[in-house]
């Protein structure tokens, strides 16, 4: 799964219609480069790929005030909206930081209860990972990297934090924070 794909579809779902540069500007203003590895080139590549798959629909801009050739605008198709929701749901369950970050950025496109259930699935997976990591053997002088106490400690610390932050997000959802699609008028 690609964070760029989810971010581009999410930006178009939010905007309705946009030039590639508009999608790029949204991601820059959201500072998406700090919480994903999405770069400008991957945005334009994702736009081309999504268009070739029929998930977004390109059209020429009719902006008569702009000098030069028409720009291509994109709108998400019904198939694209379904793919966006599929990617969003997968991202909220994902243990990869970049994917869950992209999922959180667009979680309001889901009903509150669905977002909470997906995050609960993530939490179960994270807890299982922490339990497994705590069973890994370590050696004071490791024979291989997987037995290095600092490396295992780093993994455990990362996943402990992921558990705590997911619990915190779930608590926020349960207490009514944020506005979800099923609550909008």
From TrEMBL:
Signal peptide coordinates: none
Residue ranges constituting the Transcription regulator PadR N-terminal domain according to the UniProt record: 8-84
InterPro entries the UniProt entry points to: Metal_resp_DNA-bind_regulator (IPR052509), Tscrpt_reg_PadR_N (IPR005149), WH-like_DNA-bd_sf (IPR036388), WH_DNA-bd_sf (IPR036390)
PANTHER family in the cross-refs: PADR-FAMILY TRANSCRIPTIONAL REGULATOR, TRANSCRIPTIONAL REGULATOR RV3488
Protein name as it appears in the record: PadR family transcriptional regulator
Species of origin: Cohnella fermenti
